[in-house]
Fold:
Amino acid sequence: MHCPKCSHNATKVIDSRVIENGAATRRRRQCESCGYRFTTFERRGPEELIVIKKDATKELYDRSKIKKSILLSFAKRKVSPEQIETLIADLEAQWSKSWTEIHTTKIGEDVVAALKEVDPVAYIRFASVYLKFETLDDFKKATQ
Ligand SMILES: [Zn+2]
Structure:
């Protein structure tokens, strides 16, 4: 964290407060070189998100995993890499704003809902894997 006044790269935290139900931290900092005091708002990013898996074990959120399955769903479909990046970034922003720990099923459902808006084929491909349809009837019900 650089000092906004003298650009010195060492600042110390003199006060720290969690705000927005844990989604962000407000810090009062002081530059170790010139003594200038300033306030920062540090939003929690998706890299700090904990994912609860179906077997109840927890792991850190991994963008590459979700991206891989989304890319598979879009195979041979017309979509730009930017569209996929934006889609994932929007979801991540939503998740890290609302959760510190999130269930893998919630992630799957949100991706399904987002894909539904973008591409019907990618949506069906992703949904059939993630929602694990047992029968054709389940599949029809969910896609209606
Ligand atoms: Zn300074």
User: Anything to note?
Assistant: The longest strand covers residues 11-19. Residues 46-143 form one domain.
